[in-house]
């Protein structure tokens, strides 16, 4: 791999606009922080809404329209698929399955939601196109809403991606570098089989686990991948991960 990679990504998830726990103050602070960062791309891994309703999508659209970063990859979560919200999502944010190539990095955004169900699902019919799109990339990123691996401090295991074992195998076979997801409202990182699996905390809702705080991730990709956790209501950021990028 050459030295041409140079990209800064903000990874956000689960703002849940207009939910009873949604905070306008958090949304304003998150917007300000995101706009003060020199970002090349923003990836949102779903749950923009709480019930998949039009007014919730309108508020989400307003937020994303006020972000100064032009390039965005936004995919739905299980809450966005409620009440036929999966159709409304496309009116505001385009296709639910997305691909994007930027700065030598190839991203695949998958819709792991199912209408009116909380469980995640990718589906055998999608495996080949995911593998073929990501397999030869200089650096590859797979984004989905649901978690592929159980997370600590989230209680009883539920609403996992039901075909997570098969999905993990195809990602390993495709030599994927980074997986981004959300769903459980907790920041966490696993590094398994050469894949960095990064979860974002909830962005703008007070419905978080224990003493977890609303947060998002900033990922710098160059000769190394460096991940910082940004707590929305704190001034300091925390570097939580760094590793040299494998050559392909």
Automatic annotation (TrEMBL):
<dbReference type="InterPro" id="IPR029052">
    <property type="entry name" value="Metallo-depent_PP-like"/>
</dbReference>
<comment type="similarity">
    <text>Belongs to the cyclic nucleotide phosphodiesterase class-III family.</text>
</comment>
<protein>
    <submittedName>
        <fullName>3'5'-cyclic AMP phosphodiesterase CpdA</fullName>
    </submittedName>
</protein>
<dbReference type="GO" id="GO:0046872">
    <property type="term" value="F:metal ion binding"/>
</dbReference>
<keyword id="KW-0479">Metal-binding</keyword>
<dbReference type="Pfam" id="PF00149">
    <property type="entry name" value="Metallophos"/>
</dbReference>
<feature type="domain" description="Calcineurin-like phosphoesterase">
    <location>
        <begin position="7"/>
        <end position="186"/>
    </location>
</feature>
<dbReference type="InterPro" id="IPR004843">
    <property type="entry name" value="Calcineurin-like_PHP"/>
</dbReference>
<dbReference type="GO" id="GO:0016787">
    <property type="term" value="F:hydrolase activity"/>
</dbReference>
<keyword id="KW-0408">Iron</keyword>
<keyword id="KW-0378">Hydrolase</keyword>
<dbReference type="InterPro" id="IPR050884">
    <property type="entry name" value="CNP_phosphodiesterase-III"/>
</dbReference>
